[in-house]
Amino acid sequence: MEEALIILKKIQNKLMNRNNEDDQQIANDINNAIKIISEHKCISNNSEMIEFNETIKELKEENNKMNMNNKDMKNEIDKLTSLFKEYKEELQKFKNEKTNKELFYIYEVNKSGKYRILGDKFVENNKNKGYLIINGKRTEELEIYANLVEGKNEITIVFSPIIVDFSYMFMCCENLVDISSLKTWNVSNVISFKYMFNHCQKLIDISPLTYWDVSNSKSFHGMFAGCNNLENISYLKNWNVSNSKTFSWMFGSCYKLIDISPLSNWDVSNSNSFELMFNQCYSLKDISPLTNWNVSNSNSFRCTFECCSKLENISPIQNWNVSNSKSFERFFFSCSKLKDINPLKNWDVSNSNTFNDMFLRCKNLEDFSPIKNWNVSNSNAFYNMFSDTKLADLSPMKDWNVSNSTTFSGMFSSCPNIVNLEPIKNWNVSNSTTFDGMFSHCSNIVDLEPIKNWNVSNSTTFGGMFRYLEKLVDLEPIKNWNVSNSTSFQGMFEGCRNIIDLSPIQNWNVSNSTSFERMFEGCRNISDLNPIKYWDVSKSKSFRCMFMECEKLVDLSPIQNWNVSNSTSFESMFRRCRNLVDISPLINWHISDTKDTIQTYAMFDCTNVVDKKILEKWNLPKEKFKALFYN
Predict the structure, then answer these.
(1) Could you tell me the pTM of the whole model?
(2) Lowest mean pLDDT: which of 24-33, 94-103, 204-213, 599-608?
(3) What secondary structure, in 3-state letters, does 480-549 show?
């Protein structure tokens, strides 16, 4: 390279002596070439080689253009051309030596002989930008799978310097343990580390990444997610992540991660997502290092601390500016030790359109008064928001504007401490299309009077809404509900063992329903079906378990004229109705199974049924007829 430097300076001096304005361009080109060589002492990568080659071409063109018939000048340029070829060979040799030193790996391979080396997306984005050397044999390009022998395999990964996307690079390399050879990688131009070490389950030591310059990266999405044994992330302390747009799922499922203090000084202000960032970090207890994080640009906190089962103190995030967030879905899902949410009382959640599962399975959380002033008016979903908590008092939600919500499914399900629905009696639920399981397993609710005036006319499903309200007796408060748009009443009153009288719902228009599956299953005190004799059930596809375990049911004559011809399932419809003796009222039901598509298994409990043959009129195959009767 020194020889090239001498030649270039020699040409430069000759041009300076000519003092010709037309020589300015060629002088600039020479300066560039001198700069390349002076700074690097050698041509260290392809981009420099290309630039040097272009300089030589331009020297030739400009020399010809200016009719510089100076033989010395031509000879000097020819020498440069010759040197270029030598440098090209030297560069390749340099790259090979560098590769063997820095990018040499030995992988353990399973018995199948297949091992995932690089992820699909990595290959897709970087095709023909590198290759593998497997057991001494070179591939033509980076491969997803390689045929390897069982045991240890020598693998060299050769990358072209122009790769700027490391997404999916070592994803699912479950046996990757040693990444020491990555220590000297120049990643300063990389814009994405998405899923780079995702599900590298044996990776423990990431110290080789200590001095990586990641300042240009826009994404760390899922970078270490699934690294189940990763515990020490102190080596990331000085990473400059200020340009990143997302940290979503970065440490998700890092089960052993306890100390996140190395992240305390990270500048995350440009990030628009922290979704799943610490999802399933089962050992994470102290989040104080996140106190000063600027998260104001984030539009989603979905699942951020999901399943952080040891997390108890959330005061460090009390001053987070979450006003731009559109989602808090599953934010604290299954944070089973969380008891105090007072730090959230001043959060501005007014832009959020979903709170689905936000506190689901926070089994020790009882007091929700801190969030009584939350503005939830933009939310269209509260699915399972408080499910499986110790919530007893609904008064904190009394003034919530829920008018935009289209679903309340499971919102208060499995909250056995709820007794009084009075605080939410004035809720405007008119936009909701589903109430599935809203109060399911709220076993201490007795009175539905507070919600008698709810407008539920837009709902298309009430599946399991009052499932296992074991103390519920009176359906009178909901007799005027307009349920005409509903296509499903599946399990609506399942397990309501104290309901006796169905007359309050006798005028319900259920004609659009396609499923009555389990609607009254376990209603052990129902004995009279007369109130629902005129129900139009003609569109129903399923009556599966509808009256199962209605032990006091004796008379089926009220439903003898039901049109059940569209149904394909009668399985266990009257199973365990142990006092049912006479099934003759159903003789005219149109049940024909010529195509073997109807399920009738255990439709009746045969213990006390007197005349089974009476149903031979039904067009059922012999084996299915036998299976009609349980036991």
Answers:
(1) 0.76
(2) 94-103
(3) CCCCCCCCECCCCCCCCCCCCCCHHHCCCCCCCCCECCCCCCCCCCCCCCHHHCCCCCCCCCECCCCCCC
